[in-house]
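seq:
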Amino acid sequence: MQIEIAEQAKMTVNGSALLRSIQNDHTPILDLLVREAIQNSLDANVPGGNYVGVDILTGTFSPKGINAYFDSIEETLNNQFTEKSYECIAIRDFNTTGLTGPARYSDVKNNEYGNFIKLVYDISKPQDGPGAGGSWGYGKTIYFRIGIGLVIYYSRIYNQQTEKYESRLAATLVEDELKPNRLLPENNEGIRRGIAWWGDACGNGSTMPVTDEKYIEDLLSKFSLMPYSGNETGTTIIIPYVDSDELLANNMPFNNEGDYDTFNFITPFWYASLADYLRIAVQRWYSPRIDNKYYPFGAYLKLLINGEEMNAEAMEPIFQIIQGLYNRAALQNSKVLDDYLGIFEGTVHVKNITINDTLNDRTAGWIAFMKVDARLLKMTQPYNKYPPYYYCNINSMSEESNQPIIFYTRKPSMIVAYETTGVWASGIQATQSNEYILGIFVLNSNSVITQNNMDTKLEEYIRLSETADHTSWHDHNLTIVDRIEKNVRNNIAKTFMPKEPVVENEHNAKLSKFFGGIFLPPTDFGHGPSLPSNAGSKNLVRENHRNYSFVINKEHMTYTNNILKIKLEVKAIKPLSRLRVCIGIDSETGVIKIAEWEKNMGLSTPFELNEATVNICSVNGEVCNRETLLDGIGSKLQYKGVDCVIIMNPNETRYAIDISCVTPRKFDVVMIEKISIKKNDVSPVFYVEE
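struct:
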C-alpha cells in the first residue's frame, strides 16, 4: 500500500496530541478499547436487524508477512520487530452496515462525510444518528494507544447506488512525532506530524482505500482472518504489534508504593490473558445488552470471544444480576433476573425518577436496585466467585462493610460508570460484609425537555453532556443530571434506612442506643487523629490530634423527653485561630454532615443543638473559668480574645459551636450541650473541624 504522510498546516493536530486527546487515567486502556469499539459496531446496526454481532479476536502474526504492505516504513518495522511472531487484536462485527459513505474527500457533498471518512481519515467528527454513542469524535483515538499506533481498517458495504457489495481497506498510523524510535520519515521540509495513511494512490500524494478483493484477502490471511462474503457486511479493525503483558499491567490498579492495591493483592484470573480480560471487560460495560432478547431499543448484542459465543447464562453472576436489573428498570419485567434468583430471596425495588416542570411526562428514568448476598453472587462454595468490586474494577473494599454500587446508562445501554461514593451514592447506608446494594438507573430516552421551550429529547441532552470518553454525565444549561443523581440517591437511601426496632420500653431503648455509642467519628475522619481511647475511664472518650484534643465525657450524660445532654471538651494544644465542635449523623460509611444530609439527601435534620453552657477554662495557660449560656443565634461568650458562638447551616439548623481567636491562642473550652433528638433511628456523632 502507498503511504500518505500528513503534512503540517494551520490549525492541524500532531500525533502526540491525538494520543493524549482522551485525558482518562482512571479507566483501564483495554476497557476504553472495548467501550469504543463495541459502541461503534452498535451504532452501525443493520436497520431492522434483531442483533449486532461482535467477535473480539486475539492471536499472533508473522511480521515478515505484514511489514511489506507498508510503504516507507517496511525497513524500520523489520529493524524494530525482529521476533518470529507478535500479538494482535482484531474486532470484527457482523450484521452491521459496514463503514458506509464516501471513500475520498473529493466525493463528500453537503458535509455528509459518512462513517468511513469519520473513522479512518478524520478526527472529532462524531456519530450523529439518534441514540448514537459518541458526541465528540475523539473516542477512536484509543485504537492508536493499544499497540504501536498502527491500525488496519477493513469494511464491506452494500452500495445502494450501484446495488453491489464493495470492500474497502486502509491503514492509519498515529505516533508521537518526537519519540526517538518513531516509524515515519520526515517530509521534505523536515516537519513531522506523526500521522500517516496507507491505501491506493489517487494523485497528489493522497491515498484512497484499497478495493481489490484478492489483495484484501491476502492481507487478512496474514492475521488468520477471512473476508466477508455473500451478503455479509461489516467492519474489522486490526491492531498489530500489541504487548499483552504491557496492556494487562496497565489495567491493574496500583497503590502509591507500587503494590497491587484493589483486591487485597489477589490477582483475579482475567489478568493472565488478553482473551480472559476482554471477556470480563465486555460484560463490565455491556452486560445490559449481551444476549438480551428483551432489550427495548432495537438490536441486542451477540458477543463472541475468539469465535466462542457468550450467552446470558455464561455471564458472571454479578453481570447476570445487572442485566436483570436493567430489564426490570427499562421494562418493569425481567425473566432473566427472576430465573436467576431461583430459590434465593431477593426483593427488587423499582422507582420512577421524576423531575417536575422540565419533562413532558415528568419521568427522567427508572432506578432498579436490590440488596444481594454472597450466595446470590456465587461467592460461596463450590463457585467461590470474587466480590462484585473485582468485576466492576472498583477500588472500594472493606472487611467490615460494603459500599453500594450504583451504575447508570442511556439508550445504547453501555454502563457509563460504577459509583460507590460521590453524588450518586453518598448517604446510602453501607451493608454488612456479606451483602451488597446494587442499583442501575436507566434513562427515559423518549422523554422530551419542555423547559425554556427546548423541545429536545432527554436522550440527546444527556448524550451531549457526556465527556469525550463517556465516563460521566454533566449538566449544561439545566440541572437535570443533578436532580437525577439526588433522586436516585434519596430513593435508595430511604428504602434501606435502618428501622427502629419495636421494644416494650421505648425510653430504655433510646437510652441504650445513645449511651451505647462512643459518639466519635470513625478512624481517619479529620486531620490524623490517634485511635480513640478510654483515657483511664469508661466514661471518657478522647481523640488526640496534632494541634488539639477532643474529649467526650459521658459520666453525667442524660436523655429525657427527647433531649440529649452531654459534656464535651476541646483543648488547643498549639496556638490556633479557630476550632468548630460539630454534630453529624453516624453511618457505616462515615460521618454525614448536617448540610449534606439536608441538601443532598433531601431529608429533615434528625437532631439540633438547642443550647450549650460554655466555659472558657483557660487561655494560653492562664486559668479563666468564664462561663455563659449560649441559647441561640446572637448569644456569645467573649473572653481574652476567644469568642464562642452557636452557628447554623444555610437551612437555619443549629449544629455547631464555633471557637475563634483574634490571634492564634492555646485554649481549653468545656461545653455542656443540650441536643433535641427528632429521630431515633440514627445517632449523632460529635467531631471537630480545624
